[in-house]
C-alpha cells in the first residue's frame, strides 16, 4: 500500500517544491533594481509606507523586525526622501493595534503627528498595497520593510497599478529569522494564488487624501 502511494507523494512534493522555486524567482526578478539599502541612491517619493509587525515577540521580548523598520522609515523622513508616512498594519482587536503603536513610537522619535497617516486595515501585504492605491489615492510609494518583504510588496503593488520602490530595513540573521524566511517562500506562492482568484482586501473604505 505504501509503495503504491509513494510515487504520488513524490509527485506532489515535487509540484510544491517547483512552485516555491518559480514564484520566488519571478518575484525576485521583478523587484531587482527596485529596492535600496542606502539613503543616497533612493529616489524621493511623497509617501513612505511602513508595513506593520508586532512590537514584541511571543514571550515579551522586543521584535527586531519592528525596531529596524521604524529606524528605516525615520531615516527616510529625516533625510527628506519622503514627506509623509503611511502606517499600514493589523488592528484586529482592542488589544492589538500595530498602526497606533508604530505612530506613537514615531512621534516619540520626532516625527510630527500630522505627517503620519494610519491604515488600520492592513491585515496582509495585499491589503496594504491595494488600499494604498484605492483608499489613499497613491500612484507612487516607497515601501519600508525587510528586503524579502519589500520584494513581495513591490510585485503586489505592480499588479495593482501602484508604482512602488522599497527601502530595505536591516534584516536579522538567517538563524534567528529562519521561520520567517521559510514562511516567506509560501507567502510568495500565495501571491499568485491571490492573483488567480482576484482576491480583494478585507475592507475597502472611504478615500483618504494624504496632504
TrEMBL record:
Matches recorded under CDD domains: YdcF-like (cd06259)
Query: Which Pfam families does the record cross-reference, listed alphabetically?
Result: DUF218
Ordered alphabetically, the record's keywords are: Membrane, Transmembrane, Transmembrane helix
Q: Name one GO cellular component term.
A: plasma membrane
Q: What is the lineage of its organism?
A: Bacteria, Pseudomonadati, Bacteroidota, Flavobacteriia, Flavobacteriales
Keyword Glycoprotein on this protein?
no
Name this polypeptide is given: Vancomycin high temperature exclusion protein
What PANTHER family has UniProt attached to this entry?
Answer: INNER MEMBRANE PROTEIN, PROBABLE PERMEASE, INTEGRAL MEMBRANE PROTEIN
Enumerate the InterPro entries for this protein: Cell_Envelope_Assoc, DUF218
Q: Which residues cross the membrane?
A: 6-27
Q: Report domain DUF218 positions.
A: 49-170
Amino acid at each position: 500500500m505504501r509503495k503504491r502511494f509513494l510515487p504520488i507523494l513524490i509527485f506532489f512534493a515535487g509540484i510544491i517544491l517547483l512552485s516555491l522555486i518559480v514564484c520566488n524567482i519571478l518575484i525576485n526578478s521583478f523587484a531587482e533594481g527596485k529596492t535600496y539599502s542606502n539613503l543616497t541612491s533612493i529616489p524621493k517619493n511623497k509617501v513612505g509606507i511602513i508595513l506593520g509587525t508586532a512590537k514584541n515577540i511571543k514571550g515579551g521580548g522586543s521584535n527586531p523586525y519592528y525596531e529596524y523598520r521604524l529606524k528605516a522609515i525615520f531615516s527616510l523622513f529625516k533625510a527628506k526622501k519622503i514627506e509623509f508616512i503611511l502606517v499600514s498594519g493589523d488592528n484586529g482587536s482592542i488589544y492589538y493595534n500595530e498602526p497606533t503603536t508604530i505612530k506613537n513610537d514615531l512621534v516619540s522619535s520626532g516625527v510630527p503627528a500630522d505627517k503620519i497617516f494610519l491604515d488600520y486595515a492592513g491585515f496582509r501585504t495585499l491589503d496594504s498595497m491595494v488600499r494604498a492605491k484605492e483608499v489613499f489615492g497613491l500612484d507612487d510609494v516607497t515601501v519600508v520593510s525587510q528586503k524579502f518583504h519589500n520584494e513581495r510588496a513591490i510585485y503586489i503593488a505592480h499588479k495593482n497599478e501602484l508604482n512602488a520602490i522599497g527601502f530595505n530595513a536591516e534584516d536579522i540573521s538567517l538563524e534567528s529569522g529562519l521561520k520567517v524566511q521559510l514562511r516567506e517562500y509560501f507567502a510568495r506562492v500565495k501571491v499568485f494564488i491571490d492573483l488567480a482568484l482576484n482576491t480583494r482586501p478585507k475592507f475597502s473604505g472611504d478615500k483618504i487624501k494624504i496632504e
